[in-house]
Amino acid sequence: MSRAAAARTPVEPAPRPPAGAAPRILVVDDESSLRDMLRIVLRRDGYEVLLAENGRAAIDVLKRERVDLLLSDIRMSEVSGVDVLKAAKELNRDIVAFMMTAFASTETAVEAMRLGAVDYLTKPFSMDELRLKIQQHLESSRLKQENVLLKRALNSRHEFSNIIGRSDSMLAVFRMIETIAKTGSTVLVTGESGTGKELAARAIHFNSMRRDHPFVALNCGAVPETLLESELFGHMRGAFTGADTNKKGLLETAERGTIFLDEIGEMTLSMQVKLLRVLQERRYRRLGGTDESQADIRVIAATNQDLPRLVAEGKFREDLFYRINVIPVHLPPLRERREDVALLAQHFLEKHSARAGKSVRGLSQEATALLEAHHWPGNVRELENVIERCVALEQTPVVLAETLPANIRSAGHGTFAPASGPGATPGGFPDLGDGFDLEARGEEFYRHYIALALERAGGVQVKAAEMLGMSFRSFRYYAKKLKLR
Ligand SMILES: Nc1ncnc2c1ncn2[C@@H]1O[C@H](COP(=O)(O)OP(=O)(O)OP(=O)(O)O)[C@@H](O)[C@H]1O
Ligand SMILES: [Mg+2]
């Protein structure tokens, strides 16, 4: 019997086991008196204790049971404590392993530490020392695991089904998507161009019960009306000139899945009637066909237009609007959630840097500040384009301010109408005075230069966009918004 077993444990309050289930300790020693002693002491401290009299039995227990802490002798016949340790670590990387050794085998104890044991005690040891160490190691392991969980929770809070964001407004969108995905309701996703409407639609589909069925997207603005109808409903051979075979429509393809009707505001009034009928009756017929099909489809529509305004102007049917606007999801413009800019920029940086085989790792503080200050008319899509371009051009591991496009670098400098005369400030800007409508003044400025660029470019939009250092998309967005077509 070792002296350890003879050591007395003073009667003092036992250390509290961590909250929840009592930690489980597996004691492995071929000396039965030590096993019994440890069992009594450790049980009194509130742990659950399992015993094994040799290495083989220990490995059996490890395979069957959850064990939080392994307390094993090193020198045992046949299967050694080091073998038990190896098996334990293989079965559970997070197990806390504690070795006991006779003074003669410290070398093996060092080897055990290399294999992942947290500590070892040389026999004989005092029970108090052992109890204290067990308590400390279990506590630090618990903290470590808590950190891992916390980190995971933090990361997942910034990403939901490929949508990145940490702003309150995006976190609210994530929660909304998660909730409505489970329902079968029709959803209307609104938001400016490039805010992630299609991404949101996909997230709804892939978090729903329909995820194993197709997600079919149709851009209603990109297809002429005559084609749109046959695209959606399909047609029979001979239904119209050129229909030389039977063709399945997208509604049929999307059966049991989701159909995404993008840019629904672009749909003509007569097409709107046809769509309304499908939504009301959940039935449709192929062009030129006689049989009606049942549609088991979830509809998600999206638009960057102001549908209530279109309704007021008589360009969009009110009944259809109510049919699709069952659950509205709004994606806020990027300039209203600036705290997402750096996070998104980093995400795109990693994506494009990997794709281009480059090692651009981050953005300089100045570059980040400029990105955060930009107005982002093209929203996340514009940001992604900017980052992709930076990755292509960047020669250093960090994106510097000078690599950013001119229109972003000049944020706050010269983007406003230069003023002269009374009230002009040194920066060339009109004085704030008692305040003025910045949006309207900004719009004036945009209107002036977009019109001028269009004029100089002879009406060629791509050229005008280039002259203004804008992407074609944002140019078109502004031209449309300011009715400068
Ligand atoms: N929150 C986000 N996280 C990651 N990527 C995003 C996010 N929002 C948008 N994107 C990316 O930006 C691009 C534009 O997104 P998406 O096509 O969903 O926008 P949209 O609102 O449908 O734009 P549009 O009205 O122009 O069709 C896509 O490449 C998309 O992956
Ligand atoms: Mg889209």
Short description:
This protein has 20 helices and 18 strands. By secondary structure, it is of the alpha/beta class.
Please describe what this structure looks like.
The chain has 485 residues and is an alpha/beta fold. The chain is 45% helix and 14% strand. It has 20 helices and 18 strands. The strands form 6 sheets. A 5-stranded parallel sheet has the order 2-1-3-4-5, with helices on both faces. The chain has a 5-stranded parallel sheet with strand order 9-12-15-8-16. Helix 7 packs across helix 8, helix 14 (341-355) packs across helix 16 (379-393) and helix 19 crosses helix 20 (472-481). The termini are far apart. 32% of the residues are buried. The model is unreliable at 1-19 and 412-428 (pLDDT under 50).
- Multimerization state: single chain
Characterize the main sheet: 5 strands, parallel
Q: How confident overall, as mean pLDDT?
A: 86
Radius of gyration: 34 Å
Low-confidence stretches: 1-19, 412-428
The number of helices is 20
In the sheet with the most strands, the strands line up as 2-1-3-4-5
Distinct small molecules bound, one entry per kind: adenosine-5'-triphosphate, magnesium ion
Derived from helix and strand composition plus strand pairing, the structural class reads alpha/beta
Measured as a percent range, the helix fraction is: 40-55%
In percent, how much strand structure appears in the residues?
5-15%
- Termini gap: 96 Å
Shape annotation: elongated
In total, how many beta strands?
A: 18
